[in-house]
Amino acid sequence: MFNKMDKNNIFTAIKFKISEASLVDFGLYNGLMGDILFAFLYSRLYNDPKFHELGEQGLETLQENIQNIKSLNRSQGLAGIGWAIEWLQQNNFLDVDTNEVLKDIESLIYRVTSFSSDENISFEDGIIDKIVYFLQRDNNQNLSRYNHYIYMECLTYLSDDLYAKFCQLKNEFHIEPSSNLKNRQKEIRCIADILLISGPLLKARVNETICERMLYDAVDLARKILEIHDTNTFGYSDSANNEVFIQLMAALASAGTYYNQSSWIELSKRSCEIHLARTDMKIMKSSDWKYLVYLTLLSAQLSELPSSKVNKIIELRISKLIEDISIDNHLQFYKILPYKSLKARFLHSFLFFYI
Predict the structure, then answer these.
(1) Nearest-angstrom CA–CA distance, 103 and 98
(2) Spatial distance between the Cα atoms of 27 and 219, rounded to a whole number of angstroms
(3) What are the angstrom distances between the C-alpha of 59 and each of 52, 55, 96, 314, 344?
């Protein structure tokens, strides 16, 4: 995927970012933790120990500055950092006792979960960011029975809050065949997020009656939205609309795969084929990186998609990302990885934080 010059540029930029004297953002989405995660993944993917060493250097910098991180959310704060450290340990990138390492972070997240309620649903800074953290921690093989009980208690609180917010969204979001969804991106993203998180919650046997009801209601809303998408041509000059519809298709396909529901997968496939047929390539080239992530996930799940167009879109976006690589304009290079080289299992794992 990368030639030698590209690899050298990536290494230089990541090294610069990790060793930067005055870091502002230590988080998972746009900060130091994202660079650390990328460095470890790149090292394994390309068998390059230099990147593993970069990841370790980044963790030392993070440890020195952890007291400066005030946010608890997933995108910039401690929930995302804690999730990433746990993920790295469970996937044999790190040999640490995360029960000890994450003790202080976990205490803060637990208190917030127990005594307050989020207004937002989202993965980045809402209810789901904490659900993802506790689900990942509950997968730890060395977990005590006490910690498992605490995590399940938190997940029950959070899933109750999530369902309450979803019911409110459902009551306010009236969908008719003539509805114009161009300005409803926030609601559509929330529905996609619920489709993605319902499966892991049910697999962990969290609040099963509530979570199953929420899943099927979200599928029903997704079906209505995609029926409007398939019969209307509004919004396709708008990259935000492109991204949000592909996000919903990817979430529905993922839920269909998870529950072996072929009708959900077929609906997602049909909508994606319609979308690809009428979307201008220029729009795709300049669209948000999330669009390509979800499109790649769809192409992995729905093997009969028109691969020539999907591959062309991906190649165009990769070319633009490579052009942007410089020390002065370093971006989060971990976002490049899923587009071509990583297999579907990585995409599923990293969908939890929108890589």
Answers:
(1) 8
(2) 32
(3) 11, 6, 12, 31, 27
* Predicted local confidence at residue 334, as pLDDT: 38
51 exposure class (CB count in 10 Å sphere: 0-12, 13-18, 19+) = buried
Q: What percentage of the chain's residues is helix, strand, coil (to nearest 5)? A: 70, 0, 30
Secondary structure letter of residue 163 according to DSSP: H
| C-alpha to C-alpha distances, 120 to 192, 221, 262, nearest whole angstrom | 14, 19, 31
117 φ, ψ to 5°?
A: -130, 135
Whole-angstrom CA distances from 33 to 39, 100, 276 are 10, 19, 34
| Cα angle for residues 340, 132, 292 (degrees, 5° grid) | 25
**Residue 210, SS3 per DSSP:** helix
Which range has the top average pLDDT, 64-68, 84-88, 120-124, 321-325? 84-88
* Rounded mean pLDDT, 326-337: 37
**Helix (H) / strand (E) containing 293:** helix 289-301
**pLDDT tens digits for range 195-217:** 989 888 998 999 999 999 999 99
Amino acid at 325: I
Continuous segment of H or E residues that includes residue 19: none
Provide DSSP, 26-46. -STTTSHHHHHHHHHHHHHHT
d(CA 15, CA 53): 10
CB 159 within 8 A of CB 210: yes
CA distances (Å), 92 to each of 44, 54, 81, in order?
11, 16, 17
